[in-house]
Write a structure and sequence with these properties.
Mean pLDDT: 86
Distance between the termini: 29 Å
Structural class: alpha+beta
Helix content: 40-55%
Number of strands: 4
Strand order of the largest sheet: 1-2
Length: 96
């Protein structure tokens, strides 16, 4: 999870699967370090972020969910850029 104020990664978790458990674990890690009440969590329209369990968890934490419009990649440009750099550096480090 990236804070758009200063582009800091404030919570993260790695998993072999991109599923609801991954998203919930990342939210739990965020909650351990940051007061999340009133926070707006912006995401794309992936199944994890539009699911009822995810939205219940956001409500339970006092967070507000925000989704990008369908087909608009500009809404997620900051985090997409971060992942591009991460993937590039990981590939570079593994092949050196």
């Amino acid at each position: 999870i990236q804070d758009l104020y200063n582009n800091e990664i404030v919570a993260w978790h790695l998993s072999e699967r991109n599923d609801l458990a991954l998203v919930h674990e990342t939210l739990d890690r965020l909650r351990q370090h940051v007061d999340v009440s009133g926070v707006i969590l912006h995401s794309d329209q992936g199944f994890q972020y539009t699911s009822k369990p995810f939205n219940r968890k956001l409500k339970q934490l006092g967070m507000l969910g925000s989704h990008s419009r369908r087909g608009n990649c500009l809404d997620n440009a900051c985090i997409e850029s971060f992942f591009s750099h991460l993937k590039t550096e990981k590939i570079y480090l593994n092949e050196a």
